[in-house]
Design brief:
Blueprint: H1 10-15, H2 19-24, H3 31-38, H4 44-49, H5 67-72, H6 78-90, H7 99-104, H8 107-116
Helix pairs in contact: 6-8
């Protein structure tokens, strides 16, 4: 019998493609970090998917409020993203960066950015 295609865990695999790499990381788990790597939680796109809200659009009005939008596009997080970018480029890495490198090679910077996200104002 063939393997069934599934989208389960698709987003988290962009951060941690190998399970043992995730287990070996000393991540300080918080609601925001879980939300970013899973796409579940206080996101307008997630609330829309589970029929809690009718509109998945971020308050910045640029696009749907997804984790990718918050990390890479949202104008409301521009200052925090610039701090993240500066930290990573000072460490010698070019920008933009992959989700995998962000979570595995620049974990401290990634966590610091994630902790700055105040979803109640987004």
């Amino acid at each position: 019998m063939g393997r069934l295609a599934s989208n389960k865990g698709k987003l988290i695999k962009t951060y941690f493609p190998i399970v043992k790499d995730r287990i070996s990381k000393r991540l300080q788990m918080c609601i925001n970090l879980l939300m970013i790597v899973t796409g579940h939680g206080k996101l307008r796109s997630y609330f829309h998917t589970v029929k809690i809200t009718e509109d998945p659009t971020c308050l910045c009005k640029m696009s749907q409020q997804t984790t990718e939008h918050l990390l890479w596009e949202c104008e409301l997080l521009r200052k925090q993203r610039q701090v993240l970018r500066n930290s990573i480029t000072k460490a010698g890495r070019n920008w933009p960066i992959t989700n995998c490198d962000l979570a595995n090679k620049y974990t401290k910077f990634f966590q610091k950015f994630v902790y700055t996200i105040k979803l109640e104002t987004l």
